[in-house]
Amino acid sequence: MLEKIYHSALFGVIKRELKRISRNWILIFITLIAPIFAYLTVMWMFSDGVIRNVPTSVVDLDNTTFSRNISRQLDANPSTHVIKDINSVEEAKILMDKGTIDAIVVIPQDVERKILSGESSTLAVYINNTNIVKGGVVKSGIYKTLSTISAGIKVQKNMKKGYTEEQAIARTLPVKMDVHLLFNPYTNYSYFLTLGLLPLLAIVFVFLGSVYTIGIELKEGTAGALLKSSEDSITVAITGKLIPYTFLFFVNIMFMNIILFKILGTPLKGNLFSVLLSELLLIIGYQLLAVLFLNLTSNMRLSLSLGSAYTMMALTFSGLTFPSLAMPLIAKIFSWIFPYTFWLKIFLGQTLRNEPLRETIPYLIVLLLFIISGIISFKGMKRKFSDSKYWGKE
After folding, report:
1. Per-residue DSSP letters for 4-46?
2. CA distance 222 to 385
3. Are residues 211 and 94 part of one domain?
4. Helix runs in the chain, H state only
């Protein structure tokens, strides 16, 4: 009999919340429109995947056929685009200070004469490394071009000594590296950025949306009515209230997965079910952490402010933007307060690394612990739902 009342009360709370969603455009915006719009925006921003045509200047102090060939080769490299050949290093640095260019290649005088006479010559390269990703791509592109030109010169010299082309290449490159990039073979920064940003956006909307949907009951003084409709069970009240949003947020996560795996082509080398299970636990974890924040602050506005910082900091301490191995011990410990940190290990392990399923179990357990921490706060929330002194606060 008690079980029957429990389930009927749960259904009543769910029905009540569905009516509130249908009548409140803010709830519809938070749960459906805003997340999808954010996903599409990020997808559009990073759809190219690889940085190309970074503005570069060549300071040609030699002005010979060989030096002009270097400039053409640099312009032909996909990473760099030579926008201006100038004759002054000072002028080039002024352009870099203005942000017009991001790299300078200085070709010294007599470079052709030295090369033809068998001497070595040094080219100076200046790179704006303010943006580390862009700076790294430009550096790699320029060095690859110059290395190719240098190797070509050595091959020609060896062929002039009577060696065949194969022998000349072998003498120029006696040791060859066979490099295999296992997890991002195309050096596509979209894999790095979208894998981190899209889920981060998801948890931001889940957390803040949950704070708003529960906190609005306190702010508008309807918490008592919610508790009454749940037969005075705070577990039924919060569970019934969050279930519709859990479903809607999971639909949004599915839309995110379509963008990642189908549109952007992110690899899925592991088990899809474990990924979906971890995403569901991630949603529920952040929903119940929202309850915990409201229980601690008794204030929707303060919880939204703290929650914004809490969710956004997750990316920084997750180990994706900066390796956790290089973090100080206190930073590593701090990273454990974010469910996102443990979920990301599951996601990367199953998408890019094809890790065994047993590797996901410890992280799934941690996600469950976050859920439990939110459930523990239910008792405190019942006191706030029952006492009108907690109602009407911003």
Report:
1. HHHHHHHHHHHHHHHHHHHH-HHHHIIIIIHHHHHHHHHHHHT
2. 9
3. no
4. 2-23, 25-28, 34-45, 65-76, 89-98, 111-116, 132-160, 165-172, 189-219, 223-229, 234-257, 272-297, 300-317, 329-334, 339-351, 361-376, 378-386
Total domains present in the chain: 2
Q: Is residue 82 part of a domain?
A: yes
Q: Which SS3 state, helix, strand or coil, does residue 136 take?
A: helix
Sign of CA dihedral 238, 240, 245, 250: positive
**Which pLDDT belongs to residue 304?**
92
65 and 117 fall within a common domain: yes
| Cα distance between residue 377 and residue 312, in whole Å | 23
pTM: 0.76
* Whether residues 345 and 228 fall in one domain: yes
**One domain for residues 71 and 206:** no
238 and 354: one domain? yes
**How large is the average pLDDT for residues 375-379?**
93
* Residue ranges making up the domain that contains 135: 54-172
| pLDDT, tens digit (0-9, with 9 covering 90-100), for 28-48 | 888 888 999 988 888 787 766
